[in-house]
Amino acid sequence: MEVQVVIPSHKRAGRILTLGVVPGAILCIPESQREEYARAHPDAELVTHPDDVVGLARKRNWIYQHFGDVLQLDDDITDFRRMYLPAGEKVSVAPDRVHAIIQETAYAAKQAGAYLWGFTSNPNPTMYKSLAPIALTGYVTGCATGLLAGSKLWYNPDIICNEDYWISCLNAYHHRLIWKDTRFTFIQKDTFVGQGGLAEFRNIDAEKADFELLRRCFGDVIQEKKDGKLAKRKHQFQKTMKLPF
Questions:
Q1: CA separation, residue 175 to residues 45, 72, 94, 167, 236 (Å)
Q2: Most exposed: 65, 197, 220, 239, by fewest CB within 10 Å?
Q3: Contact present, 240 and 225 (Cβ < 8 Å)
Q4: Interatomic CA distance for residues 122 and 137, integer angstroms
């Protein structure tokens, strides 16, 4: 089984940091942006979708239907790290090894019967649990979302910013099992605001609308964070997903 690594991108030609971490990943872009991306990334493989596929959720649906077994990576990833090493050890994984780990993780997910798979979203190595390196329930971040063909999963086109919560909840409803290797994590830039990509569509109103849609569909599994740290958050609708298993 060969999993394709695909980077959905929009109006960020020349700024695809992820290619430095996972060389050989495929760039998936609107047809009208092909020439611009080809000039900026002459060595990259480009796959285009119709221009009327607008929004990240629709783009992710198109990618899943087109590729099947796939790992979708954000275009602003700066590193892939080991979480299990002691302080002082080199945590960054070499690019050629990153590809092997992706394929090995996808294979393990398939053997376990999981359709949704990925890596930890917590970049803090002190939170790594050495006795639980694999999580079988929970949430897979949109920064690095792995999907295997044959599932009942799809992305709601009405979701603007939180398609990772949608797919994680839908997976819990249909399949329950995930495969998340917490020994590794992708590191990305903070792009809540910026040019191109999801930043073009993301704002507080969109986050609020997503929160309300997720609550309507999945109930009180979706909750606002209640940690007393509102002033330190990027925005007021940061969420948690609490599954009953």
A1: 33, 20, 33, 11, 30
A2: 220
A3: yes
A4: 15
